[in-house]
Amino acid sequence: MISNLRDVLPPPIKYAVNRFVDAIITASGRIFSANRWLANLYYFLLSRRFDREHLAVLKGRAAYYRALCEMGDTSPLLRRNVHRLEKGLIMQPRRNVFAEAFILETVHCYNCAKGRPTYSQDELRWATDVLDEYFSVVEDTPPIRKARKEYSGEGAESKPRADIDPCTFKPYPLSACPETDVSFEQLATLFLRRRSVRWYKQEPVPPELIQQAINVAALAPSACNRQPYRFIVANDPSRATEIAECAGGTTGFAHQIPVIIIVVGDLSAYPKERDRHLIYIDASLASMQLMLAAETLGLSTCPINWPDVDWSERRLQGILDLPGYERVVMLISIGYGDLASGIPYSQKKQNELITQWCAEK
């Protein structure tokens, strides 16, 4: 109602009203920031800015528990628990008994996944190899013995699987990582080369190049390997423009973006509120790798900020038909950069402006 009233006010009065409202918000912020109880009261009485996130977290939790009964093509629970097993397997020194608290849950989830024809075969293969390794080294206790029995004959005493290649998806030593001849100077050059490009040649971008960049971006670290994000690619220029215009700061260049990638975080990967920020952390790690990979493929990119503005969220959610538990993390424009276009210098913080060394004990 207040927003509608502001729209019909003359500019001088609107300016005065805005100044008054800003003054009230500034003053109330100092008062309500005194403790957590007052902060909660502030966001209950005076601001509804976090309402959408609250709702998304609750919808995500509901979707998480629903997925335990209605297994999809991937499972955040299975991914998390298999990664926890991996961390137990690489522990130094490794304990003789570990994962008692969740191994039966893991095997139940694994067996459900095996029963779905559309379940990711790579994910299932990884789970199988790690569970095989786990049961081959862990000592029996009542819960482990029960889990071993329910592991459908795929435990350490099962027959070798001759139908698959000898490459395994289980933990391996650091020494087995591939060698690289990329020097620090070469990597720094790539970082300098990747600038935020806002002007593009009006040329189509081959989908296979975008898929290459996305696939290598997925190698980014992710908390418990849940990878709670996806990349939605709009490679129709008119659709890319429509989506770019949902974000702030794209006025003047949204109309010529050939492709835009919407990075979406998935809160259905978590049953607890404490993990709600992981979608932003994990998706951002992968997005940076995507942009660097695109640069090596001759493509330019620009990450587009996505502030939590309800109007923008509603508009884009409608365009993409996103479920309520998915949240947009950022947009990334991508295409063949116009070499005649300008690049902001964007001086970066260095040394003591961005680094603090902890004092020695």
Structural write-up:
The protein has helices at 2-8, 11-32, 36-45, 51-69, 76-89, 103-114, 121-137, 142-150, 184-193, 207-217, 237-244, 278-296, 310-320, and strands at 229-234, 259-266, 300-304, 326-335. The protein has 361 residues and is of the alpha+beta class. It has 3 domains: 2-47; 63-170, no CATH class; 184-335, NADH Oxidase. A 4-stranded antiparallel beta sheet has the order 1-2-4-3, sandwiched between helices. 25% of the residues are buried. Mean pLDDT is 91; it is low at 154-164.
Task: Explain the layout of strands and helices.
Blueprint: H1 2-8, H2 11-32, H3 36-45, H4 51-69, H5 76-89, H6 103-114, H7 121-137, H8 142-150, H9 184-193, H10 207-217, E1 229-234, H11 237-244, E2 259-266, H12 278-296, E3 300-304, H13 310-320, E4 326-335
Antiparallel strand pairs: 1-2, 2-4, 3-4
The structure class reads alpha+beta
**Helix amount, in percent?**
40-55%
CATH fold-type name of the largest domain: NADH Oxidase
CATH homology superfamily name of the largest domain = NADH Oxidase
Which sequence of SSEs, written as H and E, runs from N to C?
Answer: HHHHHHHHHHEHEHEHE
CATH architecture of the largest domain: 3-Layer(aba) Sandwich
User: Could you give the distance between the termini?
Assistant: 57 Å
Low-pLDDT segments: 154-164
Rg (CA only) = 25 Å
